[in-house]
Amino acid sequence: MFTESDKKQIESRGMTIDQVEHQLEQIERGFPFLRIKSAAAAGNGILVLDENAQNQAREEWKKYKQEGHQIVKFVPASGAASRMFKNLFAFLNANYDTPQTNFEKEFFDNFRKFAFHHALCEQCKKNEGMGVCKLIQAGKYKAIVENLLGRKGLNYGQLPKGLLFFHDYEDGPRTPMEEHLVEAALYAESKGATNIHFTVSYNHLELFTEKVREKLDYYEEKFGVAFSVMLSEQKPSTDTIATTTDNKPFRNADGTLLFRPGGHGALIENLNDIDADIIFIKNIDNVVPDRFKEDTVKWKQIIAGILVEAQRKVFDNLKILESGNYTHEQLEEISRFVQHDLCCQKPGIEHLEDADLAEYLKGKLNRPIRVCGVVRNVGEPGGGPFEAFNEDGTISLQILESSQIDKNREEYLKMFANGTHFNPVDLVCSTKNYKGEKFNLPDYIDHNTGFISNKSKDGRELKALELPGLWNGAMSDWNTIFVEVPLTTFNPVKTVNDLLRDVHQA
Fold this sequence. Notes:
The chain is α/β, with parallel strands linked by helices. The chain contains 15 helices and 16 strands. Strand 11 and strand 12 (395-400) form a beta hairpin.
């Protein structure tokens, strides 16, 4: 199937022929749907904390930080902002010149509320000889959009979302990257050090590096911390081969094989490279200005405290099991912790002999842990928290996407439609074992949870293989705890007009 030239191309990407052949098999075969027991809900897999429990968790986190552990905040930031401006690109290509849709009208009626409006106005004066207001008066709406999105202007249509002006302040506008620095200083600082890791695309690496260089001293002085900022790229070895609609390798015009980024699940490799005791994960666009940060910081501290408490219990139990010196009553207590606190259930567990039970519990405890903040479902698209069956017959908490649900099973569709919570991808993770050794995170991926999407290139249809999502199948075999967090902590920016919401007005 592959020529010598193909083999060289594959190897140059850090991939093997076997890997690529396996991907082709996956595309042809497709992926099984997950078996679901139920949607997670308050009291059924989702913790709802009262004020006392919240305060206790925050205190746990405070004590943990004082001990001087290595804490890292991990921010997936490789996406371009083009989807944010989909509606404005459509306006540029429309056969009319003045705003017609509600979206277009809202954008132009409120342009002064955008943090980038000063920069846009200056750009318009430079390129068009007049500012935004005068261009609007002259009916030159498309010129404004061209100066916002195009290369001759601010180039927002091609920049990464992390480097756009999101929020306005007296000392100037801030990008999401800067807001994440501020957040990290407020809840992830330990012994005066704050570590933050951004995953960026190769095309944007230099831009991020420049922005970090430009802003770091300012924020270090402002918050009295020493920042360590790391940047990494999605590895070419995590790309996946594309196929034609009849499952043959898709070839570019020059005859080379087409590889595509495998989705955010590829970032498990970047996460695996991080040596830290605790890792926070938060998407680049889920940030708020300072006046709304109190809830965000508070609940980050809470879910981190919940993780620290769970980690301590896991480690204590593993030490008991490893010693071999345990009673039947201790095994039962550990079993209750695994089944109740970690929501990992095994039908028939009560029939296991002590030695078999100890071995089983050891396997379920000795793996990475994550605490996920989940919000009440308000109709946002995306995944949700569920109890799902694993390959070994156990049931555990998972975050599922709609593509993993069998649409032919009415009871599954009902569970998904009636789910009470949505996952905002607000995670804090423990990726070391009780001996302080790093887990190899790719060992805990469920490779059967990828999916096939239909795309196109150069007008030709193709099939693309998406890897198991970072917080879906890539973390399938982790211990998971869901905690309800308030909606105020979930403020993603999916379209440019989302920046007009009060929660993004500084």
